[in-house]
Amino acid sequence: MGEPCPNAKSYTDLIEAKEPKFFLKTRTFLLDHTSIFTYILRYPSSINKTMNLKTETKTTSKLINGCCFEVMNTMPDNAFDVVFTSPPYNRKRNDKYNNHTDIVDDYYQFLHDSVSDCLRVCKGNVFYNIQKNSYNRQDVHRLMGAFAPELIEVIIWHKSNPMPNPHVINAYEYILVLSSENKSLKANKTYTKNHFTTPVYSANPYKHIHRAVMHPEVCSHVLLNFAKEGDSVLDPFMGMGTTGAVCSSMGMNFTGIEKSLEYYQEASKRINEETQLTF
């Protein structure tokens, strides 16, 4: 995360939406000669592969290659219904990425600034997935204290097959739920628990360049239970585009920001491929 942030202009007036002719359209723009912006307009898949949900809503995806702090600075307040994201974990060992580092000098400030930006641009709930480890534990817990008034819930993502080690195995991650408006987290159905279980994403098809891709079931679980069809969803740490692919299949509008050009390009390709329609 030590690379300089490219400049980014507002994306709100870049494109005039056109009715799709039952196929996916993709248009790519260069912002200020530094940031790339891709706009995808389509009808969502008729059946969600993971959750078997029918969707009727026309959706859009907006993918931006740039620094999330600079890009979000161009966005208006309350621009999105939901934020779902997972920032770098500051592992220090840097063993998850080929051409990228997640090491941040002042990791707490990095987290604090990103949460503040997410809260500003979100009129609903921010779902902020992070795992405490031996490198970041104090920063993560300090963050939870700093945003105590906005922290309305903590969801536990339990991993059924975590990585073994000789110490206490780190078998869960936090999904911090924050909101400037809501006082509590309301689910779409009764008896929704604040914990769930998935396996580690062993079948990750992108492990040759990114070995820490989130299991799609994690995003699907959160959006299925706490968002609705037609919502606008932001992921400022888009990575390989998992959130975007899930949003497309669930009839939600997606905006993703990714700093790495390589990951941005792979995410664009993935969302294109996973949301093609057949009529």
How do you describe this structure in short?
This protein has 279 residues and is of the alpha/beta class. The protein has one domain: Vaccinia Virus protein VP39 (Rossmann fold, 3-Layer(aba) Sandwich), CATH 3.40.50.
Question: What can you tell me about this protein's structure?
Answer:
- The chain has 279 residues and is an alpha/beta fold.
- It has one domain (25-274): 3-Layer(aba) Sandwich (Rossmann fold).
- The protein contains 6 helices and 10 strands.
- The protein has helices at residues 68-73, 107-121, 137-146, 216-226, 242-249, 261-274; strands at residues 25-31, 35-42, 59-65, 80-85, 122-130, 151-159, 172-178, 195-198, 232-235, 253-258.
- The N and C termini lie far apart (42 Å).
- Mean pLDDT is 78; it is low at 1-35 and 41-55.
CATH topology: Rossmann fold
**DSSP helical segment count:** 6
The proportion of strand residues reads: 15-25%
> How many strands, which pairing sense, and closed or not: the largest β-sheet?
10 strands, mixed
Calculate the terminal CA-CA distance, rounded to whole Å: 42 Å
Strand order of the largest sheet: 1-2-3-10-9-4-5-7-6-8
Q: Which consecutive residue ranges, at least 5 long each, have pLDDT under 50? A: 1-35, 41-55
- Calculate the mean pLDDT score and round it: 78
Instruction: Tell me the structural class.
Output: alpha/beta
> How big is the Rg?
18 Å
Number of domains: 1
**Assigned CATH superfamily:** Vaccinia Virus protein VP39
Number of strands: 10
Shape verdict: globular
Percent of residues in helices comes to 10-25%
CATH architectural type: 3-Layer(aba) Sandwich
What's the CATH first level?
Alpha Beta
What is the string of helix and strand elements?
EEEHEHEHEEEHEHEH
